[in-house]
Design goal:
Layout (H helix, E strand, L loop, with lengths): L3 E10 L2 E11 L4 E5 L6 H8 L7 E6 L2 E2 L5 H7 E4 L11 H6 L14 H13 L15 H14 L4 E5 L7 H16 L3 E5 L3 H7 L2 E6 L2 E6 L1 H4 L2 H8 L1 E8 L2 E9 L4
Parallel strand pairs: 3-8, 3-9, 6-7, 7-8
Antiparallel strand pairs: 1-2, 1-4, 4-5, 9-10, 11-12
Helix pairs in contact: 4-5
Amino acid sequence: MVTIACHGLSVRLGRHPALSGVDLSLAPGQLVGIIGPNGAGKSTLIRALLGLARADSGQVRIDGQPLAQLDRRAIARRIAYLPQGQVLHWPLSVERLVALGRLPHLGPYSRLSVEDAAIVEQAMARADVLPLRDRIATELSGGERARVMLARALAVGAPALIVDEPLAALDPGHQIDVMALLAAQAHGGALVVAVLHDLAMAARRCDRLLLLDQGRLIADGPPMAVLTADRLAAVYGVTARIEQGEGGPLILPTGRVKSP
């Protein structure tokens, strides 16, 4: 199991304060969604938690250890990371691309073991890309590529998974499948964190939501406690229909808040 915590975390991107004094603790067993408007600091937060964005102040700990004391390989074995909008440069087959997820566990010049190959196969099955295994990844549609990159993250086999906008480019059916997969991963004992823009999916599938606005953590808690009409108006500038429906809560933005 992996835990991640930060205290007083602040990050500047150039002159812009991207994060300001964020305190939080993340533990296994829940699907945690990070939400907020464009530019709220969502991607910066997860990059800072992974040591990919330099903190100007505050501290991040992974399993109680200061992030600065962990090498990149150790972090990669503990936390699989799927950034948003990845560009593929090499014409690899889908199967070979997914197999790159095993790299943190391999030594120099090592080949995949039978166990590694089985993990890759399972990752492709879970992300619904087995039928694409022999296709060239650069020739896939945007949605197909997104699922392949998710499979690569799953192939790491890490006890924690952080994904940034995993629903981008996916059709509605695959959005439902991916959210179900992430929830199952979390409820199976993993730490799973997802940056999301779809408030309906976040409300229905996440156990906990972190709402960011202008680099600050505005709210942290169960979806229906975080996604109130007042907060949606203040943070997103929208009115919304909020109700309990069959299978979970329903959040439907209906319009812009009118200026006084």
